Amino acid sequence: MKIKTIYTSLVYLFVVMCFTIGVNQKISAQNITAKGVVVDATTQETLPGASIVVVGSATGTVSDVNGNFQLPCPTGSTLEISYIGYTKKRVTAASNLRVELSGDAIALEEAVIVGIGYGTMRKSDLTGAITSVNQNDLKKGMITSAEQLLQGKVAGLSVVQGSGDPAAGASVRLRGGTSLSASNSPLIVVDGIPGVDFNTVQ
After folding, report:
1. Do strands 31-40 and 97-101 pair parallel, antiparallel, or not at all (unpaired)?
2. Which of 100, 170, 177, 183 is 20 to 30 A (C-alpha) from 74?
3. CB 71 within 8 A of CB 59
């Protein structure tokens, strides 16, 4: 009787182990890690920062500096790859993907430079105003300083000469002189360097 009980227990344990192994294998087979690289279809240059998401879920990632990405997802998932200025593309998840994105002229027109060199942003996402001054406007009038280049050419920008001395600096205020939120002195960025003094610009 004791031997029969031990035998029954061993059989039960064996069945449980087989079931557990089978379930684990099934779960493993249902998930993969999608891997690949995102490139420009024309130049074949890699696209760092491209967005890769699993369609129908909140799972996603972005490509690294070399355009490579890895994303765990269920087998058979559809991935949507997007990048500013390019047409979105959908592919089936696999372990060796090469996604080529084509430039989208319409999307590229909607991507504008924010301020003076901070990056790109879609027009629909902008929360402020952008004003540009072209080269021909800068050639008009007699000027003695960099501040005077913008005087009267940018809406909301006030440039007031402190004295009659041509070499004296000017007071520059953005959006009027009564801002309640913070200082209305503009942040000046020249060639990507913030905080430049207008008097040092040649």
Report:
1. parallel
2. 100
3. yes
The answer to whether 95 and 35 have CB atoms below 8 angstroms apart is yes
pTM check: above 0.90 = no
**What is the residue extent of each domain of the chain?**
33-107, 132-202
CA distance 150 to 171: 12
Reduced to 3 states (helix: H, G, I; strand: E, B; else coil), residue 108 is helix
SS3 of 122, please? strand
The pLDDT tens digits for 160-191 are 776 666 666 677 776 655 555 556 666 666 66
Q: Break the chain down into helix, strand, coil percent, rounded to 5.
A: 25, 30, 45
Q: Which residue has the tokens 């021909």?
A: 136
Domain 33-107 matching CATH 1.10.150.130: the answer reads: no
Phi and psi, residue 198, nearest 5°: -55, -35
